[in-house]
Amino acid sequence: xxxxxxxxxxxxxxxxxxxxxxxxxxxxxxxxxxxxxxxxxxxxxxxxxxxxxxxxxxxxxxxxxxxxxxxxxxxxxxxxxxxxxxxxxxxxxxxxxxxxxxxxxxxxxxxxxxxxxxxxxxxxxxxxxxxxxxxxxxxxxxxxxxxxxxxxxxxxxxxxxxxxxxxxxxxxxxxxxxxxxxxxxxxxxxxxxxxxxxxxxxxxxxxxxxxxxxxxxxxxxxxxxxxxxxxxxxxxxxxxxxxxxxxxxxxxxxxxxxxx
Length: 260
Hints:
The protein is α+β, with helices and mostly antiparallel strands. 40% of the residues lie in helices and 23% in strands. The termini are far apart.
């Protein structure tokens, strides 16, 4: 079948088929050496449609190559990888939508009131995890709850101060997060003591979902630059109420950035 007829029968464009050929995904059965016209067998329609379907599901060209040539176990692995990626993208879109709705409600692009103060020196008990920027919110929550559970197991009452210190991510988006509390006890498993020096900071109070904290950070970073400062240490989030018994819209979080 000439490329035009084959494209029409598969509901694809000629441009798409040429691209699949260039990427070695679907090579024509025959190319006329004189004219360069491409011809396809009818049984290649299965591969052509499969490629088109996978592209519509946002599979990359390398992943499609794996799927077309892989055994069942590899196929499962590739599908799991794509499902995870799509889940992350969906979560990001939901967070973005929530933030846009907040901007609409606040009628401001930077709806947080940023202030400056000196943060006191502290000795805190920390549980440290390694995570990725895309998983930081979920993993930080898990680490914080694990820290509180460890305190409970050690017979220590629930702390009145809970904070996460977020280190700067590396070029791959990997970073360390320290879930901290003001309870100082070196006998709690999987924790260590951290000493935080007194430091000037820029900060603001965020009310609402943790997924919208990005808006607060943008406001803080803007204020830091406007006032001629630079970030001088890991970002901190202090959680002022318990999400287990507080409505999402009433959650209070201090966003704190050390400055120099």
